[in-house]
Structure formats: structure tokens, C-alpha cells
Amino acid sequence: MSIKLSILPHQTECLERAIQVFDKVRFNKTNEIFANPLIDINDANLKRNIWEIQENFNEKKIPKEYRTRREDNFGIDVRMETGTGKTYCYTRLIYELNKKYGFHKFIILVPTTPIKEGTKSFITSDYANKHFSDLYPNKKIALSVLNAQKKVNGKRKMFPQAISDFVRGTKLENTKISVLLMSSGMLLSKKTMDTEYDQALFGTYSNPYDTLKATYPIVIIDEPHKFKVENKAYRTLIEKINPQCVIRFGATFPNRTKDKEKDYNNLIFNLGSCEAFNSNLVKGVATQMIEQENSNELKIKLLDFSIKPKLCKFKNEKTNKNYELNIGDSLAIIDKNFKGISIESIGKTEDNDIKSGVVLSNGQILSKGDQIYPSIYGDTYQSLMLKQAIKNHIKQEQENFFRERKIKTLSLFFIDSVYSYRDKDSAGSLRINFEKILKENLEEELEKFSTSDSKIHKEYVSFLKSSLEDISVTNGGYFAEDNSNSDEEIQKEVDQILRDKQSLLNFKDENGNWNTRRFIFSKWTLREGWDNPNVFQICKLRSSGSEISKLQEVGRGLRLPVDEYGNRISNEQFYLTYLIDYSEKDFAENLIKEVNKDGKNINNLIIDDKILEKAAQDRGIDKKKLFINLLLENFVDENKEIIIENKERFFAEYPEFNIGLQQNKIINKNKNQSGTVGIRREKFNEIRDLWKKINQKYYLKLDEISEDELYEAILEILKSDIADELSVKVIEKKISPLDGSFELKEEMINYYHLNENMEYNTFLKQIQKSTGISFFIMHKALCAYNKIKKLEQSFFNQKTVVKFTEKYQEWFEKTFLKRFSYKAMEIDSLETQLTDINGEPKERIIQGLVGIMKDERIVTPDNFLYDTVVFDSGKEKENIESSNIKEVVVFGKIPRKSIQVPLYFGGTTSPDFMYIVKKDNDYQLNLIVETKDVKKNSDIRGEEEHRIFAAKEFFKQLKADGLNISFKKQIKSDDIIKIIKDLIENER
Questions:
Q1: What is the pLDDT of residues 235-249, one digit of tens each?
Q2: Would the pTM count as exceeding 0.90?
Q3: Which end of the chain is more exposed for a tag (fewer CB within 10 A), N or C?
Q4: In this predicted model, what pLDDT tens digit does every residue of 339-384 receive, in sequence order?
Q5: How many CB atoms lie within 10 A of CB 736?
Q6: Which residues, at least 6 apart from 21, have a Cβ–Cβ distance to it below 8 Å?
């Protein structure tokens, strides 16, 4: 299996913004062929470009409070939530900056070994190399990784090979981009970096800092919150290497010391957690907690600590007894459940939120006043958590295994100590206990499925048997201590977890044997940087410190999963189960608050006037009347502030006002917020036949078109004057006085043509890639057009490709509008969104598949397929409430993207509702409804109109194949009852 990388819209926008920063900026050449071009930092275009990006780019403004910049060094910031592709973006940005501006020396600076290994693994992977070679032919990153120098006694001090290789790359090597990957530890290593070596590069440079400085590098920083500007690592970077530009990529940025605001330096892209969750760019989060056995549970409180001498004072809240501990002392002195946990340090910490505190040996950081529960560290409580985690995993594993395209399911465990997992030459007590519980559970599952004749069940039985043959192979661990471990088996585990993400995702190895490793254990080392798309559960057998570190841990499993063929799955709602102890019982609520900080006006929950006006227009009522309605229903107060206790009900009834985190993106399973809806079995049985028929696989058949017709169409497109030159405008903005105030006037004062022509062969390749037109036909049409109008070299550029593709797509959609058909395939559907592989209804499905909103005040109609009223819009809610009529036997929302009617112009469409309607008490009709959120039919244009036409044709074919079915389009003014009554009447 090879991971398939996709070009995602949010990543494209990020790159476009970063590239625009340097548009029309002056670059000065250097005499050194191994150095980057020099950016003219004083060029006014630089500031102007950044302002334009922050103010106007795609109408996504950067909030004014985020528009800060540093005067001491130039840089730009990119904020991207964990799991949305930071590594991909900065790797591709390297290619883009090389292509556009000729930069060829980049340093990637990361804080830890796991992040370094993850970055190295991505850049050097076959799947990434293939992806980038398709996008940037004849270009390749030459990656050098700086590691600690090995000391060789009696020999000369050799210049670090990685730095030597990096620096020796020159701009004359057109196909190579030199990239140096290093950690903050190596940046600060005097032994490696601040040493005069016996050899000098180019006869001049014998000190690594000076050598790197001479290349005028562009530095990319990953995880910027670990590189605060006042910290030693950042100061060393600026003072010793002095990069001409620092580009920081991160989900979290450090706070400024003086005012605690985020320390942004020219923030140009702001993809926060709220947008990432709502746009389905990451998994949702479902928290789960093992309940506290006793409300009078023993608590230990950190009363105080001192730096000189290094002492900390704890209090047993039950006995009121105080304890003074030094560095190295065990907390077992206070309670036996703390066995194996000691005081590691007192004073300054590396945590952004807890500057000074007590660091425990398990990585937990305590500040003054913090309380910890001894019982959650005990064997009994941890065994309960292990049992629940294994139960969760097996349930998720079966759901993912029984899909049409399987997904390998992984679980990640954070534990207290390496020695509880690995004790010298044998397994630790926690690992022994885990494997015992796992073995018992797998044997139960094996017995359950061993008699099944189902092909997929037999395959799963084989997987379980392989797991039981050697239970120790099912799990692996990575700990900081492993970096110096020489044990071959341990290193094999570490390599698979840390450096070979792809092999963890494979069900089988290269020899066809099952790869059963799916449980990963770590202490604290994997809290940042490492992730894997198929982590579906994080079990915390240890408590963590700050809120930031909690969010970082969640990030280890936020990335959307990939299937057994390496395809990223983005059209479904997945959840990361986050199993925690009761000391973090409010985690879900705190995470929601954290995420909602990204939503506009979320902190004060005040309704924006523009949103109120738009909502009133959409609902066809006066703005003032809508506001009065909201007041009377006790949803808002007179200041337009949302009344917090009615917030969920308000968003359910008026979803257009929900500008924060959507419901059911982060859920607390302990509060019955399962994030699922139940399927009523008796109702499903009545709709079973319809569901089976509409899930029958069909393929799209386009009528054949002759080469002559295609040739003539291309020639007509070429004749429509698609030639265009790339140009840039010079915009002048003036502030002018007007009636006692000022106004901003904008005027184009000049423009320039850019000479970015393509080679003819490259032009043909680009056309083929975007349209599928063969070289032969395109070349033939171009030759014919050249006889009509001489083609200049300036014709062959990217803008012409774009315009031609747009015209071709218009022709294609118009030409094939009535020249396609659907034909059934002789393929049995396996699992569907509503049924398991045996065709039986699932007990529950993820709510997001059928509606992001829920209104529990509404009595669920007796004939509704689900046990809860869920919907995506006000019109859908109206349909559900109105469909409880005697003519409707059963109805329900069609799960999102479950049917996927193939479209002749690419992509798929899926309708909204399915109905079984009865006529004269015995004759049944099947009805499919597509609901559109528009006021009138004329508002449905272009692609949306073609989608509806294609859906009509699809269901027309189903009718021709023997299914009595009708397809109806519904707009805002269409009443569902009238649609149903008309259907019955027309059948008379």
C-alpha cells in the first residue's frame, strides 16, 4: 500500500498566500553560487503584499489583533491546525519558492527527535517523491539530516557531513533544492555547531554557524510554540545564522511575554481548530471517562515549592498531613499508588502555560494549587482503563475491517514509565496485563466469528488467529530511552512507529503475512510532531499538564484516516475516542471552549448585524421582526447576546447563527452525547428493499464521441480567443478627506506583462492533465488554428491552459447533458451506511451522516427511520415535522454521500430524503427528494442544475430496471406534503 497524496483546497490557499508575499519584491544576486538570492527587506512591496493578503485574500481576513510583526527579523507565520497537512504544505512551499523565486537553500528546524524523524520520513518517502515529481518535473529535494557527531578518538575533527552536503549544493544544479533538517538540540550543540574544524569549506568556512549564515537560508520552523523568541534556540538562530526569512508553521504559537497575546509575525494564513473541525478536515473527538468510584476520593495538593533550596510541599487533603519532597524523591512516600513516580525537577519548565512548577517523572507538570488523585495511578484503575480501551478498539476495528475498503485501526496509549512497559530484558507489568486482557478479548471475538460463512468474517478470523499466535507483536512502544537502546527487536519497533508510518497502516507485509501491530505505547515522547492518520483512540494512563499539551495529544489522532489502498477518506464523519481518567472529567467542555476561540464573536456570543440581516432575508421576514422573535423565544437578550443556557436549542432552530464549533464535533460520551443516532429496526424493515435497490452499484456510460467532433470542438474553443498573457496590476491607494472624515480610493495606475511561457510539450501535458485530451488531437487542432492565426510563443502559458480548460469544461457539460446513461453492475454491496455486511441494520450511526443539528424538544415522528430528529437546515427540519402523515409509511434522511450517483462531468451527488408512500392502503410508491436551500427554481444554475438532471436520469434508470420510484426536487417554497399528495394523485 502506498499513501496517495491529494491537493486539498485549504493547502492550495495557504501556498498561494505564501507565494504572494514575495510578488514583485526586489531580489539581489550574490556572488556566491551556493547562496540564496537576497530579499530586499526594505522593498515597499513586501509590506504591501502582506497587508493585501491579510486584508483581501479570498475574503478571508486575518483578524486585526493578529496582525503583529517583529522589527528585528523578517518572517511570515502560517497557522494550521494539527492534522491538516503542515508538513505537506511547507515541503511543497519549498518547491514553489524555488520555482518562482530561485531559492535553493532551506533549513527546517524542529524541536524534537520524533518530529525530525517524521519530517524526514515524509520528505524521503516514495509516495511523497512521486507526488512532487508529478507537480515539479526535474526538481528534487536533496535532504541532509544533521545528527550528533560521533566521536572518533585520535582522529581529526571532521566537518559535519550533513552541513557540508547542504552548503555544497549550488544554484547551477538546476534540478536540486538543498534542504537541511535539524532539531533545536543540534542547533544549540556547541560540540557540533560552535567548533572550528580542521577543514574549511570553499577554503573559508570552518565554523558550522558561519557556514550556514553564508548561504542566506530561508528557515522553516515547525511547532513555533517550542521556539519562543526569548528562548535560547530562537536567539541562537537569529544571532548565529541570521536567516533572511523565518517561516513558522504551527497549530499553536507562543504568547508574548508582556501582554500574553499571541506572538504572530506577519500571520498570512489562519486555519484554526474551529474551521478544521467544521470543514471536516480532521476527525471529531469523543471523550470517554472511567467514573470515579468514590466522591470522597483521596486528593493530594501541591501547596508550594521553592527554587533555593529545591523543595516542594504536598498535602494529603483527607488526613491534612503535609509532606516535603526533594528532587528524586518518590511520591509513593505519600501514597503507594504513586509507585514509580518521582520528582524530576522543580522550578522553570518547558511548558508555555506553566512557566514554573514541579515536573514529575511521568512528564506531568504541577503548578501551585494543583491536585492529583493517587487512585488513578493504581493498578486496579489502570486495568479498568485498559479493558475499556481494548473494548473500544475492537468495536472500531470491526467497523473499519468490515468496510468495502478496509481501514487499519490503531490505538495509542500514554503511560507513566518505560519500565512499566519494558523492564530491562522482559515485558513490564503493564504490558503483561495489557496482553492478558487483549488475549481474552480476541479469543471471545474469534469464537463469535469462527462459524460464519461470510468471506469478510473469515478474513477477520484469520487476522485474529495471527494476532493470537504471537500476542506480543500486536503492540509496540517508543520512549526517549530507546534512542540509545541497541536491542534489535526494540529498534525494529521504534523504526516502524517513528520512521515507517506506512508499514503500520498495512494489513499485510511484503510476504503476505498479517501485520498485527496496532497498539502503540509511549510515555511523553510522542506528544508532539508524531501522528498517524489511522489512530482512532488515545488512552491516557497518565495525566498531563497544560491545556496546550492536551490539545497536542489529541492531535496525534486528528488526521483523517486512509484506507487499505492509501486513499484519504474525507467524505465521512470519523471520531477519535479519547479515554481519560476522572481527573480530566471536564476535558470535552474545555476543548470546546478552546476550539470556539477561533470562531468569530464566539467569546462574547453576540450576534453580528450582517448575520442577522442575512438570516432574515433567507427566512423572508423583516430583520427587526426576526430579532423580536429571538427575544420572545428567550434566545437572545436586548444586546443581541445569546442566552447561554438556551444556546443548543437556539442553534438547533436557527442553525445559520452557529458560527462556532458545530454540534457533535466534540462529544462527551459520559453525558450520553454519543454523537450517534439509532436506527429503528422495525422502520428499517419497511424501507429495506428501497435501501438495497438504491445502493445497487451503477456505472456511468457516456455516448461515444468521434475524434472529428472532438477536434472541431477544440478548434472552436481556440477560435474563441482564449489567448491571454500573465499580467500584474499596479494599484495605488490614496486616503482622501471627505465630509470631515477620510475615504480610501483605489486606482490602477499601471500593469506589466509577465513572460512566463511554457515549452510546447509542457503545454500539451498540462492540457492533457486538466482535460484528458490526447497529445495527438490537441496538437492537430493547434496546427490547424496556427494556419488561421499565427500562434506566438506567448500563447503557451499557464493562463491559456486555465482559460482553455474552463471553455472545454463548459463545452463538455453542455454536449453530454443528454448523452449519458446509467447501467447496473453485477456487484453485491457489502456494508452500507445503514447496514452491516449481512444486510442487517446497524444499531447506531454517526449523527453527522444524517444531520449536524439535533432538536430533542421535537417528538420524533412514529414513521421516522431514526430515533432522534436530526437535520442540516431549517427546511429539512420542516420536512421531518410535516411528514408524520398517514400516507407516509416510513421516511428518513439519506446518509451523507452514501448513494453517490456518478456525474457525467465528474464527481458524485447524493439526494437528501427517501420515502415509502402508500396509496389506497396496499399500493406502495418509493420517493426520493433532493432539497435545495433556494427560494426559486431560477436560482438553481450551472453545475447544480446539471447535478439535479443527472440524479433524475439515474432514478429514471432505476425505474426502468423495475423499481417503482420517483425523484423530486424541492426548494424552500415547496411543501413536502403537497409533493407527496401530488405523487399519489399522479399515480391514479
A1: 999 999 999 999 999
A2: no
A3: C
A4: 888 999 999 887 666 778 999 887 788 888 888 888 777 767 788 8
A5: 8
A6: 46, 49, 50, 53, 76, 266, 268
